[in-house]
Write the structure tokens for this entry.
Amino acid sequence: MKIFNRYLLYASLFIVILIWAGQSYARIDMKTVEGLWLFDGNTKDSSGKGRDGKIEGKVNWVDGKFGKAIEFDGTGYVTIPDHENPTKAVTLTAWAKS
């Protein structure tokens, strides 16, 4: 009976961990974000700081994983306004599909 109880305990813990891990997610702290460009059909800055991007050259808007996405053909790019008070630390995150 002790072995059965031990297996039941381990199985229960495993299920709880799976449920907890499936619900974990990343959260963006909008107070610390200096720019957030989702490229969901536009190049607007979603951080509220007004640093909207500008498309240079040719790009295509395609269906993305979430909404729209921007597709570069090698000649186009997006420019972002300079930040008036840059820091040494910068974090960039992107979804890319080749």
The helical segments are 2-22. The longest strand covers residues 59-63.
